[in-house]
Specification:
287 residues, mainly alpha, 2 domains, 6 helices, DNA binding protein Ncp1, coiled coil
């Protein structure tokens, strides 16, 4: 099927009623979802032949330029439907994700079975496909259906491959979390050592101060020793504070990575269910 001419490009966004029982191309179920809505519209004659449904999956989809200023027909009163308005280009800002994220894969879910996998198909394309199908013979319809079944099997294999890739992404995320936990453990040990050193230095400073008050004859000598110990205390306190700041940062990084892993785990579980539902839809059978 060739692309529409320039005179028809402006009408690509029109939501015309979908024939009863007709599925959208490429396995889209939008036609079925709008079945109840299209019964209230008289803009197009209904198609009652249920045998037309399965042979429309391989029809091409026109993705030419769309005119946003062209008024919509089909009972819309000249108003533009927000669900079919052309999506303008959006300039994305520089990513602000932390470098500690587990993985960048599957952040928006499955690319084959997720919500972004459903194409936007104009109702006029579906209606024209249904009209064209009525002129096909039984043999031609059977040939098209067999080809669609082969495409469905190929897509099912791709879904299986994607599932394995997502499992690998989750495994990498878990490894990243384990590595961060090791760093957190080392930071905690360093904090413990710093606390012990600081406590030891504090005891030494207190002892030096006691000696200073007890031996005024050696005041200058003991005072110098006391000042030295106080400097050591300040140095150890600075070290302790630095290590505590490091521990707090590691706590935040571990918590962030843990949330990311949990989100990926939930997303994977959702994607697995969507894949199985997609396989049932494509292959027409349940395990």
């Amino acid at each position: 099927m060739s692309a529409p001419s320039d005179n028809t490009k402006g009408f690509i966004n029109q939501r015309t009623p979908i024939p009863n029982g007709t599925r959208a191309p490429n396995g889209d179920i939008r036609g079925i979802k709008e079945e109840n809505q299209q019964q209230q519209s008289d803009d197009a004659p209904p198609v009652n032949d249920s045998n037309h449904a399965s042979s429309l999956d391989s029809l091409p989809v026109w993705t030419g330029s769309r005119d946003e200023h062209m008024p919509l027909t089909g009972g819309m009163g000249g108003r533009r439907s927000p669900s079919v308005a052309r999506k303008g280009s959006v300039r994305t800002a520089k990513s602000t994700r932390s470098v500690t994220e587990a993985t960048a894969a599957f952040h928006k879910g499955s690319a084959l079975a997720g919500p972004n996998a459903e194409p936007e198909i104009d109702a006029d394309v579906i209606r024209r496909g249904a009209i064209a199908e009525r002129s096909l013979s039984t043999k031609q319809k059977s040939k098209i259906q067999k080809e669609e079944q082969r495409d469905s099997k190929r897509l099912s294999k791709l879904l299986k491959t994607e599932s394995e890739l997502e499992k690998a992404a989750l495994a990498r995320a878990l490894k990243s979390l384990a590595a961060l936990q090791d760093l957190h453990k080392c930071a905690c040990k360093r904090e413990e050592k710093a606390e012990a050193a600081q406590y030891k230095s504090l005891l030494a400073a207190q002892k030096a101060k006691s000696i200073y008050y007890e031996a005024k004859a050696r005041a200058e000598e003991e005072r110098a020793r006391w000042d030295g110990k106080q400097a050591e205390v300040r140095a150890q306190e600075g070290r302790l504070e630095a290590e505590r700041d490091n521990v707090r940062k590691m706590d935040e990084r571990v918590a962030e990575c843990a949330r990311e892993v949990e989100r990926l785990r939930i997303m994977k579980a959702t994607d697995e269910r969507e894949r199985e539902a997609k396989k049932v839809e494509l292959l027409g059978k349940k395990n």
